[in-house]
Amino acid sequence: MPGAAERLRASVGPRVAPVRDATRVVWEPVLTVLRWVSPVGWTVLGLGLAAWWIGARFEWPELLIVATTALLLVGLCVLLALGAVRLDIDVHLAQRRVTVGDSASGSLRVRNASRASVLPVPLTVEVPIGAALWQMRLGRVARGQVVEDSFEANTTRRGVVRVGPATSVQGDPLGLVRRTVHWNDSQELFVHPRTVPLAHMGAGLLRDLEGSVTQDQSRSDMEFHTLREFTPGDDRRHIAWRATARTGHLGNRRMGSLLVRQFLDTRRSHVTVVVDSDLGAYDESRPIMRPVAPSDPDRTSGALAATAPMDLSEDFETAISAGASIVVRAILDEMDATLVVGDHRVTKAAAPRYLDELSRAEPAPVSLLRAATSAVELAPDTSTVFLVTGPHRPFLEIRRALGQFPPEVRAVAVVVDPRGAGGLQRGDGLAFLSLRSLSDLRPLVQAGLHG
After folding, report:
1. Cis peptide before 29, with omega less than 30 degrees from 0?
2. How many other β-carbons are positioned within 10 Å of the β-carbon of residue 246?
3. End-to-end distance of the chain based on CA atoms, in angstroms?
4. In this structure, which of 141, 161, 386, 429 has its CB flanked by the most CB atoms within 10 Å?
């Protein structure tokens, strides 16, 4: 049957199209007006038509009066909504970025841009603020008059709150007609995660400082160290011809008699933060979900639904806040930073960009190995990597993920475990910070810096 319907539509459609286009000026306004009628209005209209048919059929004058009243009522309400109302609506947010729990206020400014006053009919301006709907009812508004009001957004949870678009709803006192007009675009209010101030990360856990020198020898860098004999693989541009001439070996054809410059490795510190976005790593009641192939949308949506309920894990929120605190401290110390959390990746950007992406981050199945590989590709010059996860992520997976970074990179695992003992442990080339609460992050990192 679906195939027959499609064939019928394909055969009849080209014949109907010219008639439809020629009569568009007639039926399109009618359809527009019919869309304004609310469910209550359709109910009244249906009762009026039914009363009219029954009254005419059985010559029942009372029903004819009821039918006439119902139909006239719907008609009058439609006429009230026909008046063209032109409004200039401006939705202004005091701040586009706030922290969880901070005040986020905004204002709504409405100006009557019509040539006449707005009649005192029910006219409401609605502004969606996240899942809430804020309303401002307008009475009689003179030509050019401006009406202003303020609103507050809910910032009790991290996330992105969409504000707008502003919509004017023009109707009637009985609610039979509802004419809506969208006046502007929506805006985004970023509710950033909480952060704690960390001590200067210029020593201890960080391998290299901005402008400081390591003891790792390099064949090519900016910090000259010493001279040595040429070995196969050396860059000939670094041959010290004058020093070789002074030794008397310039005429010797053996390359081993030549002297080359030896340098010390200097690098700009680069902090990489990888946050585990799988709720199973933080809550033992939720199994760690394995990411499925994106080519299978049904399985993908099912996996996301299983691991991303509306009630986000508090431990996951602590992990987000810990990652945000580390990134902010690195930027304050004028270091490069890279962030990987779920599908969100940022590198070498300003601090607000990292916090915006953390506001967008949602729980999702994740492969730590793949996330770490992605971080290595984004930041091959990483000097320190922080992996933030929960106590139920297997240690082998953590070790393998951190093992994707070169051996000279200092690896730190931050495990959010409110029921754990807490503290700092070192072993196997790794530093483990057991974090019971966000307030523990500063002393733990400080202990690692001086350890």
Report:
1. no
2. 11
3. 75
4. 386
Q: Which domains does the chain have, with CATH numbers?
A: 21-82 (no CATH), 87-192 (2.60.40.10), 217-264 (no CATH), 270-449 (3.40.50)
For residues 391 and 415, is the Cβ–Cβ distance under 8 A? yes
Q: Tell me the pLDDT tens digit for each residue of 233-268.
A: 676 777 777 777 777 655 554 545 677 776 554 556
Listed residue (255, 230, 206) closest to 386, CA to CA = 206
pTM for the full predicted model: 0.69
What was the pLDDT predicted at 274?
95
Q: CA angle at residue 151 from 147 to 154, to 5 degrees?
A: 165
Q: Are 383 and 265 in contact (CB under 8 A)?
A: no
Residue reference for tokens 């009254």: 55
Are 337 and 347 in contact by the 8 Å Cβ rule? The answer is yes
Name which residue leads in pLDDT, 236 or 346: 346
> What is the rounded CA–CA span in Å between residue 118 and residue 150?
21
- Choose among 83, 182, 180: nearest CA to 140: 83
Contact status, residue 159 vs residue 191, Cβ threshold 8 Å:
yes
Written in H, E and C, the secondary structure of the chain is: CHHHHHHHHHHHHHHHHHHHHHCHHHHHHHHHHHHHECHHHHHHHHHHHHHHHHHHHCCCHHHHHHHHHHHHHHHHHHHHHHCCCCEEEEEEECCCEEECCCCCEEEEEEEECCCCCECCCCEEEEEEECCEEEEEEECCECCCCEEEEEEECCCCCCEEEEECCCEEEEECCCCCEEEEEECCCCEEEEEECCCCCCCCCCCCCCCCCCCCCCCCEECCCCEEEEEEECCCCCCHHHECHHHHHHHCCCCCCCHHHCEEEEEECCCCCEEEEEECCCHHHCCCCCCCCCCCCCCCHHHHHHHHHHHCCCCCCHHHHHHHHHHHHHHHHHHHCCCEEEEEECCEEEECCCHHHHHHHHHHCCCCCCCHHHHHHHHHHHCCCCCEEEEEECCCCCHHHHHHHHCCCCCCCEEEEEEECCCCCCEEEEECCEEEEEECCHHHHHHHHHHHHCC
Burial 272-311 (b: 16+ CB within 10 A, else e): bbbbbbbbbbbbeebebbebbeeeeeeebeebbeebbeee
The answer on pLDDT for 393 being more than 50 is: yes
What is the rounded radius of gyration, in angstroms, for the C-alpha atoms of the chain?
A: 34
